[in-house]
């Protein structure tokens, strides 16, 4: 048999074995599957909400204001007669978009800084890590509130505020990983055969940082969504008439007195499920990427 | 610690001053259009002086307890903070204690009955706990327990017809106890239940997960096998040998937990009209009153640092290995 | 003479994802009062599993599937957990391999030793705190005496120290003291000297022989070191891949090793008085305990293997008095 065929056969077998192993892990962790389903569902809704949502989320219709859930409006209507279901669906776009952006930007900044700090060591390391530690000395939400309050209301400002609060976490993770790997044998041997610094970082060090970052980032998507909603609730994030979940809860707050519960319940529920989905997925990824024999 | 404090002051200073746009309008409030007021604020804040001088003045001001003036309450910020602080302290302490006790208990139950129904139920609970938004939880709790069931009192610290107890510490529960004011004691306890549940919910979930994970890991350790080979009853193995080791990572984490507790006070106090620092900060935010926000940030951060210090000390108390090392 | 401990047809399996690991299969063993039995074999042959099974300390996914463990006339496998607890640490105790991980790091040595003493000697359930404190003091004194007995320097100081403050040798001495606390009938030592360096090892072995002479207890010494066997043990059982392949009085084993595996092990030890060019090795590896060869487990590596060896596992036969072997070379193929 020609050598090429054999190699393909071998590769296929390796992939098959890996696949079976991952399938086994998934079976042992049904929770992860739930997380995956939820997050995929969320992405789907966010992507297709303009087509799924039955009504225009900001179109007002005072005539039907404050209606409880009905067949026409499964989630009811708010004080301006806007359909809550549509608003919630559109809100997923916002929350998901902002959440992902915040995490990805923090991740990039944090990774670059962390890798540089860990790899170069010395003064650079001290400066970067001390700065990161300083930012981490603030309770995270408090810092974000301060920055958002300084910059003023608005989604963009919230994002900036969150990124500034978030990047130090990634810097820490990456720096720690880089430090460990830097001292490991195979980097030593790579250096011995003359690999340049950049090649070492890119080929050897970064790939090994990937798994803790992936786990952290996945869970952070959830936390970022929660944080943006909280900021919107306080009044610092999205502004009316944007259909943002936190903002919707804040707007519906005064109507609880008169018993109109649906304005708050549905956005909050979606918020919880969204965050939950990412957390479950992150937890599951953590289990899969660091298997420990039970 | 002092270094960190200094660093924090620096960061907050720069955030508040080196901002796109004119910092004066931040501190002046909505009366931004009036040039006269702006000029006054400018002078008052020393914004006409060079940056490094401003910084020095800022530090000096902070050391003298001068955090500026809150125009929406009409008082110096320091006075406001002194007024609002005890409420937050009371709420934070109650929530923390609640979180630790319940979280520990649930974590132990979950770990010792691993794989059984109650373990799955508790794990599900902990997942929801971590993903629920505190502001939403608070509102839902209010809706169910106040509006629908009428079990809980309306938001606030005391019913309107009851006068607060004589002020010894400012902590109503403690003061009522010390002065024997039973009516007030019961009332303040009734009022603190929902907000503290709301604030501690997320923490309970986290602590429970942490205790469960570390307890499970500790139970795999060799010294547990030895303990079993000694013939010790399972109860003692879990509560004496295993738990003592399992709490260590939990204690270490509690410091971080404190951070989310502090962050949570803003929304929880807002939802429950709890007259504390978080509420003050919230009111300041929606009124565009900047000086209090800055001050509250500093205060929260300071509390966080203190909390972490306490945790470090506790850590050394519990783990003798740390004692020998440092 | 009645054996102190008699193991019959013991089967211990581990149920894992990859399959059922047959850690112990049809193990038979006898231990007599006041004698020392050595359990030898390579890593992974099941020695530790056997040691843990005696005290019923096997945790899931492991399970004692079949067999009897008769201790002083009673089958331990039929006892309730409550009854077993009265035996563990009291009648049968165990000394483990790595003293650094087997001591609880957050309690003092004195705490952990006195705990056993209080547990088995005094019953303090429901007594007043004052009484408990008094008993604790008494127990701590007894702990000091025990530490003296095992040759621990400055025992009064050690009582108040934490495990990480002691050296490996001291921790192991303390563990032996712990095992002797309730004057057990049987002490199982699971590779108790493997983690120590040679000089300390020698001291510990000397200590153990003294104790054996003084207290007249039985010991099971699990080890992979034939030197220890030669020095300490009256009888020795050689294990391979979960079964016992040879059992004999120590002198007879060294004089006349019967099983090919035993021979291979003994010849692999370089001897000072011989001059050899190459070290003798046993070809092959132990292999998977899930996919076991049919018949005798050693036959794939055995130079004397025949067809009979692949058909069914050999039974233990007494070739000479007090010398048993499970090998078809010595008969038993009908």
Layout of helices and strands:
The complex is a heterotrimer of chains A (294), B (326) and C (334).
Chain A: H1 3-28, H2 30-52, H3 84-120, H4 122-136, H5 140-151, H6 155-182, H7 185-192, H8 197-234, H9 245-252, H10 262-289
Helix pairs in contact in A: 2-3, 2-10, 3-4, 3-6, 3-8, 3-10, 4-6, 5-6, 6-8, 7-8, 8-9, 8-10, 9-10
Chain B: H1 2-17, H2 23-28, H3 35-45, H4 51-63, E1 69-70, E2 75-76, H5 77-112, H6 117-131, H7 134-148, H8 172-179, H9 182-219, H10 222-229, H11 234-271, H12 277-286, H13 290-318, H14 320-325
Antiparallel strand pairs in B: 1-2
Helix pairs in contact in B: 1-13, 5-6, 5-9, 5-11, 6-9, 7-9, 7-11, 8-9, 9-11, 10-11, 11-12, 11-13, 12-13
Chain C: E1 5-16, E2 19-31, E3 36-40, H1 47-54, E4 62-71, E5 74-75, H2 81-87, E6 92-95, H3 99-102, H4 109-121, H5 129-149, H6 155-159, H7 168-180, E7 186-190, H8 198-215, E8 218-223, H9 226-232, E9 235-240, E10 243-249, H10 250-255, H11 260-268, H12 307-311, E11 317-320, E12 323-325
Parallel strand pairs in C: 3-8, 3-9, 6-7, 7-8
Antiparallel strand pairs in C: 1-2, 1-4, 4-5, 9-10, 10-12, 11-12
Helix pairs in contact in C: 4-5, 5-7
Descriptors for this entry?
heterotrimer, A: flat, C: 334 residues, alpha/beta, Rossmann fold, four-stranded antiparallel sheet, 12 helices, 12 strands, globular
Walk me through what this model shows.
The complex is a heterotrimer of chains A (294), B (326) and C (334). Chain A is an all-alpha fold and 294 residues long. Chain A has helices spanning 3-28, 30-52, 84-120, 122-136, 140-151, 155-182, 185-192, 197-234, 245-252, 262-289. The mean pLDDT of chain A is 81. The two termini of chain A are 42 Å apart. Chain B has 2 domains: 2-66, no CATH class; 78-288, Orthogonal Bundle (MetI-like fold), CATH 1.10.3720.10. Chain B has a two-stranded antiparallel sheet. In chain B, strand 1 and strand 2 (75-76) form a beta hairpin. In chain B, helix 5 (77-112) runs antiparallel to helix 11, helix 7 (134-148) packs across helix 9 and helix 11 runs antiparallel to helix 13. Chain C has a domain at 100-181: Rossmann fold, CATH 3.40.50.300. Helix content of chain C is 35%, strand content 23%. Chain C is built from 12 helices and 12 strands. In chain C, helix 5 (129-149) crosses helix 7. The model of chain C has no long low-confidence stretch (mean pLDDT 85). Chains in contact: A-B, B-C.
């Amino acid at each position: 048999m020609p050598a090429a065929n054999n190699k393909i056969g071998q590769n296929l077998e390796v992939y098959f074995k890996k696949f079976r192993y991952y399938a086994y892990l998934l079976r042992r962790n049904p929770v992860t599957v739930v997380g995956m389903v939820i997050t995929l569902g969320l992405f789907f809704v966010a992507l297709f909400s303009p087509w799924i949502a039955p009504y225009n989320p900001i179109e007002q219709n005072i005539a039907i204001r404050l209606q409880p859930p009905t067949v026409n409006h499964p989630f009811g209507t708010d004080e301006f007669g806007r359909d809550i279901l549509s608003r919630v669906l559109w809100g997923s776009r916002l929350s998901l978009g902002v959440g992902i952006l915040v995490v990805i930007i923090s991740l990039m900044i944090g990774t670059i800084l962390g890798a540089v700090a860990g790899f170069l060591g010395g003064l650079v390391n001290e400066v970067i890590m001390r700065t990161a530690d300083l930012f981490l000395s603030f309770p995270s939400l408090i810092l974000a509130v301060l920055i958002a309050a300084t910059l003023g209301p608005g989604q963009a400002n919230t994002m900036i505020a969150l990124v500034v609060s978030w990047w130090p976490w990634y810097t820490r993770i990456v720096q720690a990983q880089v430090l460990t790997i830097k001292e490991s044998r195979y980097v030593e041997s790579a250096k011995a055969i003359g690999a340049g610094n950049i090649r070492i970082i890119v080929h050897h060090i970064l790939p090994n940082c990937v798994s803790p970052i992936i786990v952290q980032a996945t869970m952070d998507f959830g936390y970022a969504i929660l944080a943006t909603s909280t900021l919107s609730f306080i009044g610092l994030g999205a502004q009316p008439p944007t259909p943002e979940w936190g903002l919707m809860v804040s707007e519906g707050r005064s109507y609880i007195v008169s018993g109109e519960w649906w304005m708050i319940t549905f956005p909050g529920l979606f918020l919880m499920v969204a965050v939950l989905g990412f957390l479950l997925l992150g937890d599951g990824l953590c289990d899969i990427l660091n298997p420990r024999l039970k | 610690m002092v270094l960190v404090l200094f660093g924090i002051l620096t960061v907050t200073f720069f955030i508040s001053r080196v901002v796109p746009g004119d910092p004066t309008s931040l501190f002046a409030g909505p009366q931004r259009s009036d040039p006269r007021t702006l000029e006054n604020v400018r002078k008052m804040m020393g914004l006409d002086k060079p940056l490094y001088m401003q910084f020095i003045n800022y530090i000096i001001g902070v050391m003298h307890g001068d955090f500026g003036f809150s125009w929406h309450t009409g008082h110096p910020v320091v006075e406001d903070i002194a007024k609002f602080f005890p409420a937050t302290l009371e709420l934070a302490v109650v929530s923390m204690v609640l979180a630790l006790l319940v979280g520990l208990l649930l974590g132990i139950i979950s770990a010792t009955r691993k794989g059984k129904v109650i373990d799955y139920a508790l794990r599900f609970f902990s997942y929801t706990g971590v993903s629920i938004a505190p502001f939403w939880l608070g509102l839902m709790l209010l809706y169910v327990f106040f509006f629908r069931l009428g079990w809980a009192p309306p938001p606030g610290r005391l019913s309107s017809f009851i006068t607060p107890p004589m002020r010894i510490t400012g902590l109503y529960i403690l003061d009522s106890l010390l002065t024997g004011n039973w009516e007030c004691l019961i009332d303040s306890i009734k009022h603190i239940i929902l907000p503290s549940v709301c604030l501690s919910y997320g923490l309970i979930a986290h602590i429970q997960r942490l205790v469960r994970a570390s307890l499970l890991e500790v139970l795999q350790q060799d010294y547990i096998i030895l303990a079993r080979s000694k013939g010790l009853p399972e109860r003692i193995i879990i509560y004496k040998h295993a738990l003592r080791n399992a709490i260590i990572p939990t204690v270490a984490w509690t410091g971080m937990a404190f951070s989310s507790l502090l962050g949570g006070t803003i929304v929880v106090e807002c939802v429950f009209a709890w007259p504390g620092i978080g509420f003050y900060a919230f009111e300041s935010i929606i009124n565009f009153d900047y000086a209090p926000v800055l001050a509250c940030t500093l205060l929260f951060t300071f509390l966080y640092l203190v909390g972490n210090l306490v945790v470090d000390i506790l850590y050394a108390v519990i783990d003798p290995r740390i004692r020998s090392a440092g | 003479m009645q054996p102190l401990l008699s193991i019959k047809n013991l089967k211990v399996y581990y149920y894992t994802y990859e399959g059922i690991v047959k850690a112990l299969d049809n193990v038979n063993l006898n231990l007599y009062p006041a004698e020392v039995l050595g359990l030898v074999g390579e890593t992974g042959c099941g020695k530790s599993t056997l040691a843990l099974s005696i005290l019923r300390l096997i945790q899931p996914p492991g399970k004692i599937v079949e067999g009897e463990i008769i201790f002083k006339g009673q089958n331990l496998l039929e006892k309730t957990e409550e009854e077993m607890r009265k035996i563990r640490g009291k009648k049968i105790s165990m000394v483990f391999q790595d003293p650094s991980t087997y001591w609880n790091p957050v309690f003092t040595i004195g705490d952990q030793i006195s705990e056993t003493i209080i547990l088995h000697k005094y019953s303090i359930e429901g007594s007043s705190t004052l009484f408990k404190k008094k008993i604790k003091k008494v127990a701590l004194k007894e702990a000091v005496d025990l530490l003296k007995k095992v040759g621990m320097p400055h025992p009064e100081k050690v009582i108040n120290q934490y495990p990480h403050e002691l050296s490996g040798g001291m921790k192991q001495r303390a563990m032996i003291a712990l095992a002797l606390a309730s004057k057990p009938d049987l002490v199982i030592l699971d590779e108790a000297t493997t983690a120590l360096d040679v000089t300390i090892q020698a001291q510990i072995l000397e200590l153990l022989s003294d104790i054996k002479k003084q207290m007249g207890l039985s010991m099971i010494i699990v080890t992979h070191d034939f030197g220890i066997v030669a020095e300490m043990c009256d009888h020795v059982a050689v294990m391979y891949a979960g079964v016992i392949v040879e059992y004999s009085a120590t002198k007879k084993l060294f004089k006349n090793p019967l099983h090919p595996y035993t021979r291979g092990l003994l010849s692999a030890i370089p001897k000072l008085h011989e001059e050899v060019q190459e070290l003798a090795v046993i070809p092959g590896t132990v292999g998977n305990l899930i996919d076991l060869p049919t018949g005798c487990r050693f036959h794939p590596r055995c130079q004397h293997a025949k067809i009979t060896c692949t058909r069914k596992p050999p039974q233990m036969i007494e070739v000479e008095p007090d010398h048993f072997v499970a090998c078809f070379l010595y008969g038993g193929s009908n």
